[in-house]
Amino acid sequence: MSLGYLSPEFLLTALLVVLAPGTGVIYTLSYGLFGRPGQSMTAAAGCTLGIVPHLLASVLGLAALLHASALAFQLVKFLGVAYLLYLAWGLWRESGALAVSRPEEERGSANGHFRIMARGALINILNPKLSIFFLAFLPQFIPEGAPDAMARFFVLAVTFMFMTFAVFVIYGLAAEQVSQRVLASARAMRWLQRTFAAAFAAFAVKLALTER
């Protein structure tokens, strides 16, 4: 990987994009606060893996298809909306995907970690705007007519993914540090769960209102 492809402008812009609170951040924070130690890292890994299909779609030109086809875009978008509402409902009812009271063996098992990662990945996979974002964002940092444009795109994409994972892990670990205080107070835990549920619902509404 050539570090010469990484301009300060790209690194700063990418960092600001990753730091901005979004569904992946909320999902990771949820497990940092309500899950077991280490589950927030699993959530962060899942959200990061969910970026991969969009990066591949950008490389293969599938993002252009999503942009051009209203039906394809709407289909993926509303699948994403439904999934976010599912997560919101589960948190609100203290059951489902992010339930605090799920059985102990599931919460700590390898199968439990796989489910956390899969759900995190789906959050990003079912957001069609990500493909279009990468198609519009990354090329801005590639010189026009560069003979190694694909290599540059790959380096920028991988760097963005590493930054995403690193920032999400920091968010998750920070949440884990205060989780014991939250879990010690049933009222605080309930309030936070419903706040996170409202955040997922708000992201669902935002995605539903998004145009291509």
Main sheet overview: none
End-to-end CA span: 33 Å
- Secondary structure class reads mainly alpha
Gyration radius, rounded = 18 Å
Secondary-structure map:
Blueprint: H1 8-19, H2 23-34, H3 39-49, H4 52-60, H5 62-68, H6 70-92, H7 104-108, H8 110-125, H9 129-137, H10 149-184, H11 186-208
Helix pairs in contact: 1-10, 2-3, 2-10, 2-11, 3-8, 3-10, 4-9, 5-6, 6-11
Overview of the structural elements:
The protein has 212 residues and is an all-alpha fold. It has one domain (27-208). It has helices at residues 8-19, 23-34, 39-49, 52-60, 62-68, 70-92, 104-108, 110-125, 129-137, 149-184, 186-208. Helix 2 (23-34) runs antiparallel to helix 11. The longest helix has 36 residues, at 149-184. It is globular and about 60 Å long.
Briefly say what this structure is.
This protein is mostly helical. It has 11 helices and no strands. The relative contact order is 0.21.
Supply database-style keywords.
212 residues, mainly alpha, 11 helices, globular
